[in-house]
Design a protein that fits this description.
CATH topology: Rossmann fold
Helix content: 25-40%
Strand order of the largest sheet: 1-2-4-3-5-6-7-8
Largest sheet: 8 strands, mixed
Radius of gyration: 19 Å
Number of helices: 9
Structural class: alpha/beta
CATH superfamily: Alpha/Beta hydrolase fold, catalytic domain
Shape: globular
Distance between the termini: 53 Å
Strand content: 15-25%
Order of helices and strands: HEEEHEHHEHEHEHEHH
Oligomer: single chain
Number of domains: 1
Number of strands: 8
CATH class: Alpha Beta
């Protein structure tokens, strides 16, 4: 599989997952749907010459301030679209959250890449700062903001939960007076360690086992995305490099036979979070690859996600449900 095909697969699997989520989640409750209001293409900042936008939904009949979930699409940092997550954003708003799907600049590998890394994390950080700066407008509790992402979006989400002000990469998109670190993270099959590099002897690649050859090719693609500066030291773009005590609790989903983002990424993140005593959990989907579709997988994943968000942001609601179950 060549690089373009691989990244296209990421985008389509993420899109398929979201569409299926909407179908699955729509059948999980018999209650009347709460009213929500939708605001598409809200400008949240400026990335270079690009106006950065997000699509936001929020309940209109809920007392606030409310927790907020920001969703970041996948696509290998080079493709994808915020609009593909609108069904999920609408569902999250119906569950009593403010939710938004976030546009970020896409890297354009090649000579003169205008959006090489760290443009993507700068934009993601700007989105968090925007929500905090406009917390009253959107009825958001600035202390209860979560990031959720798929593949490359999960990578950005994990960085949002681990990077501190001293780590930099804040960018100049706007709202600099507000913090960009989130309070919880949900990540689906996201790369945590970007330290893989191709061997110095490129001629040796042909003799490598297929699994190692795929790892090497991913390293080459990564260097093109990151650009010259960060390509020399990909660890600077790796969530696992920034983990320390006090980071955001995380819920991580990973397929055990993922060849695009192998399971060792999640295993390394688990190890780092455990050593730093950061709470959270990981769900390994046995026999599944990069992205999965269909029941019962997505239903179970979303149940886990809802429970995790309530644990972090609305523990009273979780206790109420547990109380009813114990009767």
């Amino acid at each position: 599989m060549d690089r373009t095909t691989a990244w296209t697969l990421i985008g389509w699997t993420a899109l398929a997952a979201v569409l299926l989520l909407g179908l699955v989640l729509g059948s999980t409750t018999d209650a009347a749907e709460p009213k929500i209001e939708i605001h598409n293409d809200v400008v949240y900042g400026q990335g270079g010459a690009t106006e950065l936008k997000l699509d936001l939904a929020r309940p209109t009949n809920a007392a606030g301030p409310l927790p907020c979930l920001l969703i970041f699409h996948g696509g290998g940092w080079i493709q994808g679209n915020k609009a593909q997550f609108r069904p999920l954003v609408h569902f999250i708003a119906e569950e009593g959250y403010v939710a938004a799907t976030v546009q970020y600049r896409l890297s354009k590998p090649g000579r003169g890449n205008p959006n090489a890394w760290p443009a993507q994390i700068e934009d993601a950080k700007c989105a968090v700062r925007y929500i905090r700066a406009n917390a009253k407008r959107w009825n958001v509790d600035p202390r209860r903001i979560a990031a959720m992402g798929f593949s490359a979006g999960a990578h950005l989400s994990m960085l949002l939960g681990t990077m501190d002000p001293k780590d930099g990469l804040e960018g100049t998109g706007g709202h600099a007076e507000f913090p960009s670190k989130v309070n919880a993270v949900i990540g689906f099959y996201g790369p945590a360690c970007l330290g893989c590099r191709p061997p110095e002897d490129r001629a040796a690649i042909a003799r490598l086992p297929m699994e190692e050859k795929q790892r090497v090719m991913r390293g080459m693609a990564l260097s093109a995305v990151l650009g010259t500066e960060f390509g020399k030291d990909p660890s600077r773009a790796s969530p696992v490099s920034y983990v320390d005590a006090g980071d955001a609790p995380m819920l991580l989903f990973q397929g055990t036979v993922d060849r695009l983002v192998p399971a060792f990424h999640t295993e390394m993140m688990i190890d780092a979070l455990t050593k730093a005593r950061v709470p959270g959990k990981a769900v390994f989907m046995l026999g599944l690859g990069h992205g999965w579709r269909g029941d019962p997988h997505l239903t179970n994943n979303i149940r886990d996600t809802q429970r995790f968000l309530d644990e972090q942001f609305r523990p009273g609601r979780l206790q109420s449900l547990l109380g009813r179950l114990s009767k």
